[in-house]
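Sample 3 of the quickstart, ligand guanosine-5'-monophosphate:
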Amino acid sequence: MELKLSKMIDEQQLSERIKQLGKDITDKFQGEDLIAICVLKGSFMFFADLIREVDLDLTCEFFGVSSYEGTSSSGEVRVTLDLNHTMEGKNVLLIEDIVDTGLTMNYLKRTIESRKPKSLTTCSLLLKPEALKEECHVDMVGFEIKNQFVVGYGLDYEGYYRNLPYIAQAENLN
Ligand code: 5GP
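Result:
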């Protein structure tokens, strides 16, 4: 299947916004310890760039979930790599690539809340407000985008395109 790509958010826009998010996180948690959770696979690139802009003592955890098949959400969240570190009494920063229907983010929030953290802050690089199927509050958002399928900067189509250094809108040519 062939995709037509059009650049939507370039390298400079990403870098400027991520610097600002890093400052916001640093200010919010001044003097506190933080656990930063990377939601695999899509947020690995955003996560790596964002935590380098955070000037705090933090540890990193990785949580693997999957809900997408092709270019649409399957409506079911599957855990592919579970969290095994305790979150109890800790400040947790959950870092996602994109919130589409809101199903995955709400699932992640429920799962982490059940581990009784001191606080839970959610951060997503992208949010598609028009695609939300359930109410979903995200504390920090990089960019709001239209209800379009995007790839690049960690986001894939059938495993490919994650290595693009920018976000592109993808159209199916078939
Ligand atoms: P949700 O549960 O909010 O519908 O979807 C969240 C997950 O679906 C994201 O973490 C991401 O992996 C995937 N996803 C949602 N929208 C897109 C998109 O436009 N492009 C890509 N590549 N993945 C998406």
